Amino acid sequence: MITTTEALADVVRRAREAGAVGVDTEFIWDRTYYPTLGLIQIGFPDGHCELIDAPAIEDWSPLAELMSDPDTVKILHDAQQDLNILHRTCGGLPKNVFDTQRSSGFVGLSSTISLSELLKTLLKVRLAKTETRSDWVARPLTDAQIKYAEDDVRYSVDLMLNIMGKAETLGRKEWILDEMKIYEDESNYSERDPDYEMPRVRGSGSLTQQQRNVLRALGAWRELKARRRNLPRGFVLSDDALVSLVKRPPNSAEEIRQMKGLSERSAERNRQYIWEAIERGRSGELPDLPNNKHIGPSPDDGYEARVDLSLASIKGMCLADQIDPALIGNRAEVTAFVLEIDNLDASRHRMLRGWRGEFCGKALQRLLQGEGSISIDSKTKLPQLS
Hints:
By secondary structure, the chain is α/β, with parallel strands linked by helices. The chain is built from 15 helices and 7 strands. The longest helix has 21 residues. InterPro entries: 3'-5'_exonuclease_dom (IPR002562), HRDC-like_sf (IPR010997), HRDC_dom (IPR002121), HRDC_dom_sf (IPR044876), RNase_D-like (IPR051086), RNaseH-like_sf (IPR012337), RNaseH_sf (IPR036397).
């Protein structure tokens, strides 16, 4: 196992010489806000694997060089979470990433397929997924842990080659390469301002507008404190306590007392901060949520029918061409597309950019503007746009 920066640099040198390597991480995520990295796996084209002992490494600069090397393909499965962890560890902005999960959606498979299912489908390899709940920080690792970790990257290069071979046959190779550029977007690796997000809180349905604002303000305070102290959100303020404060708000800081999900000690320590957040939510000073308003006229009585028509058209085209419809966009994106049809801006609508625009976005635009048509293909029995 790799335990020194010097040995890590040698692995990185060999990885760059190979031109393409599998990359994966193993971590624990129990009593912290951020995952605690235990292991990084590098899989070479010949099936050889190297395991990097994350707690032992002091200087991660060699890994940053690998992740930001535009000439070396880094192959991951369900890449974004691993890339976020690696970026937080080493700081290198990822370049030339290949996601075996996402790319599967271009070759007749699900874009959310599991690694074990993908390996079984494409390479006839069966993995024993026995260590999913292992402690990856404890040492020494067991033989079972080591095999599990190596298997996650041992076949990465073969998987990529198999997927890209199918994509080339289908004429989708350039589409996949275009899609992989999303992992080079620097905004994916910066922490979002919680003021611009509605927190996901269990039991927070059926709130008034002012209660929603108080929820946002309390959620933003909780998020920032959880990050700063590297604690789970619930350790700072539980969902139960947050909902109680929103639905039965105190009239002063002094009324904030121990309750379910808020210990007496925590109430004493955070009373003033909680009160300030409640008052901030009541004041209406929070910024508008992104995508809260669409550009264009107010929704009319028929817009939902046009959304349903658009979704059916997209699904029909995707089924006919063996593309996972989830890659095109979700219902919220399609709804915004429909509502803004007379003032579409490609910077706001990814369905007009890159391969999506070529595949269906521009045809859907013509249909919604009354310039295109939809019919049922007599052979496939699926909707098609023209």
